[in-house]
Amino acid sequence: MNRSDAAAAIKSAALRIGFDAVGIAEALPLVDPINRYKEWLGNGFHGMMSYLERNNEARADVGKLLEGARSVVVVAKNYYTPYHHEKQNVGKISRYAWGDDYHTVMNALLDTLGSELISVVPGSAIRRYTDTGAIMEKEWAVRSGIAWQGKHSNVLRRDIGSWFFLGVLITTADLEADSPMDDYCGTCTACIDACPTSAITQPMVVDATKCLSYWTIEVKPEHNIPDDISKSMDGWLFGCDVCQDVCPWNRFQTSCNDSHFMPRNNVIALSPEAVVNLQPSEFILHFRNSPLKRPKLEGLKRNARALLATVGWKK
Ligand code: SF4
Ligand code: SF4
What we know:
Layout: H1 3-17, E1 21-26, H2 31-42, H3 56-60, E2 71-78, E3 92-93, H4 102-120, E4 126-129, H5 137-143, E5 148-149, E6 155-156, E7 164-171, H6 190-194, E8 200-202, E9 205-206, H7 212-218, H8 227-230, E10 236-238, H9 242-245, H10 265-268, H11 272-276, H12 280-286, H13 296-309
Parallel strand pairs: 3-10
Antiparallel strand pairs: 1-2, 2-7, 4-7, 5-6, 8-9
Helix pairs in contact: 1-4
The structure holds iron/sulfur cluster (2 copies).
């Protein structure tokens, strides 16, 4: 099979398996993106996420992650469900975390796609990634033509907005590559204007040390959320979706109809008062296979205490 037919067969398999978009990029070194990334690190915008300073050689060249890499297959999976935070006294949770842990779901689907790829191009080697490891997923999404990078730095599409997970297969298979997608942000600056902490310092650059998602998910529980950040929490208990909620491309999103991503009642109805009183055994029981486990119970309690201390959070 030639590289064009092989690419078409793999894309068709990806859509059949349940992904919403798929594209392919040539596995070339990332020169400009890694320079921009190093500048971001140099500005200290990664805060306490020191693991992001490591493995930059691999980040710049997927050939360091898989010897002989020729192609990068990138897939997107819509996780939008038509629910909105409206209840009183409930802490807001970032939309991606309402259902099951996406790593489990995406990895299973990527494994199936990997098997399909091997049947199309026998003997291919593969490495898969879902938001793990030293790989610039958003850059690959752009290069493979499945999305553009918005000014809020997330990637987005005209048909499913930005509410999707990314998955990547690096492979030694030589597949015909796609062209990057045009940027449809235009003159819009809604995300930059709406960010409650002014964390988007310029288009596509987020200072994580100001971002609510960083403070409520990534920062270890022993660190309290600074007052100048917590005063802008506006009800967010875990993560923050403000810059995506205001994006015009997310206005007409359609539901994913994937049971894994349907909002769990105990997640969308979580009050900060309940979190503060949560016992470890209850946390393990209620949040099994949920993204809410990432900051651990103590991190979630830290967020809840910060939220309760803010004036008028009950919105
Ligand atoms: S997630 Fe929230 S705090 Fe972070 S950049 Fe977006 S709007 Fe700003
Ligand atoms: S809100 Fe506007 S500027 Fe920001 S990502 Fe969406 S379209 Fe682009």
